[in-house]
Amino acid sequence: MESAVTLRNVTYFYPLSTSPALEDVSLEIRRGEFAVIAGPSGGGKSTLVRILLGLIPHIYGGELRGEVLVGGVNVIEKGFKAIASSIGVVLQNPENQIVNAVVEEEVAFTLENLLYKPEEIRERVDEAIRTLEIDHLRKRLTHTLSSGELQKVAIASALALDSRILVFDEPLAHLDPCGARELASILHKLCRERGITVIVAEHRLAELLRYADRVIVLNKKILFDGAPASAIGKMLEAGVEVPPVSKLFEELGKSPVPLHVDSKAISVIASDIANCRATHAGSLASDRRSAATYSSERVITAEDLWYRYPNGRLALKGVSLEVFRGDFIAIVGANGAGKTTLVRHFNGLLKPWKGRVRVFGKDTRFSSVAELARSVGIVFQNPLHQFFERTVLREVLFTLSNFGCTNCVEKALEVLRAFGLEKLAERSPYELSVGEQRRLAIASILAYEPPIIVLDEPTAGIDYSLKLELLKMLARIAERGKTVIVVSHDTEFLALAPITRVVVMADGRVVASGDPREVFYDLEILKSSRVTPPQIVELVKQLGLEGACRPLSSREFAEYLKRCRGAH
């Protein structure tokens, strides 16, 4: 089969760097192949994408050795202009890619620049919008879209180009789980029906692995290149997040390791528990604190909250919610459900159209953002929205100095060490990778330890090891009586967190609120809200075990199964 992409002995150094971002990388991706590039943050995934696009070395500079062919074109010699019409791209941060005010104009933009005929542009735009199921967004202003909606628009723009090669850098980062599943299916269809080559660099792999032809595990060097089913061991060694059902089988020492919940996986676990029906639900629930018994002090109260954006769109419709001191709340829902709009009311960035929000008894309508920020720290979806300073260290110092810190430099360095950013202290925040920028944004807020901490999609763009570090840090903060509110599509991350309550939003309303083991096992309400439960929940449901146990993570379910074995 003809080659779409070829790299031979590629080594690359960024400007002023003495260590390679990629070292002796050789690979060939054939036409019509679906290839997934996995690896830890800083492992070179985005660098590889930039090389394929011709941005390295022509835009980023540095020293690039080896040979790079894309569609038979030598990209190092010819540059990115030579392949512009044959390769489509979706970048990590969709805001960096959107240049037009209206959605359909954005989807048409590249085609117009390449001088396609108007009638062909209309046909391609219509097909791309239909494929992504975003016709309801066609006339929307791009600046009013959620991050997930922006991501879909960026993907539609790439599909409209009808390139023979599509390259995606973290395309699932801002999508809700249903959207991620749908996109993975669309990419699979493009490969099979149109023969398009799809290359995806991604941390969220569960949906992609069921369709991928091959997985390339990259950590500066290629650690593995082969079939997804054979990649699990190397992925775990490299600190890459694998599907929970795969991790469950690894923890139980069973093989072959499945990539998703299928009939074989169900059969293996079913045979393992055929003679084991002991009830252990209580022991599973004991590690999660009860907010009601922890504190009865209300720290945030939303009363019949409505919000209308200037363009007339109603984003919140009568939301009522109480948050208590020491709560660890997860807010879940589809893209555009109103999650970000809600939490931006908590520190006064948005003011109610109708209704009211109180923070420690203060009505936010009559309080400044600066005043509320002392009580509520928010980590934004896009970390670039909260950077002000020239260096990483100064960014953390800026936050600390605004809140009366003593020994600020010492405290700032301590925080940077905790987030693995100490060696980057003198770098510009804008030179960091997306994962590093997200860590810095979180570190800047956690540094001054406000009593309420809100994190909006904190796991987007960070790898599994950093997720685990974030979990530990948030758990320590919650144990000290702080209130933590996490807006997230990442239900696998939430399955590992000591959350006390899950709030489900849909169409600007709160449609469910309760204990994680109740809400995540209510598949009817989740489906109607386009929320995907943790994968282990799907497995337990299909096994019919929810009456005996309600685990949320592979670790919890493995512990239950091991206790079952011991009891018989």
From TrEMBL:
InterPro entries: AAA+_ATPase, ABC_transporter-like_ATP-bd, ABC_transporter-like_CS, ABC_transpr_CbiO/EcfA_su, ECF_ABC_transporter_ATP-bd, P-loop_NTPase. It comes from the Archaea. PROSITE patterns: ABC_TRANSPORTER_1 (PS00211), ABC_TRANSPORTER_2 (PS50893). Probably part of an ABC transporter complex. Responsible for energy coupling to the transport system. Belongs to the ABC transporter superfamily. NCBIfam families: PRK13648.1 (NF010167). This is ATP-binding cassette domain-containing protein. It comes from Thermofilum pendens. The lineage of its organism: Archaea, Thermoproteota, Thermoprotei, Thermofilales, Thermofilaceae.
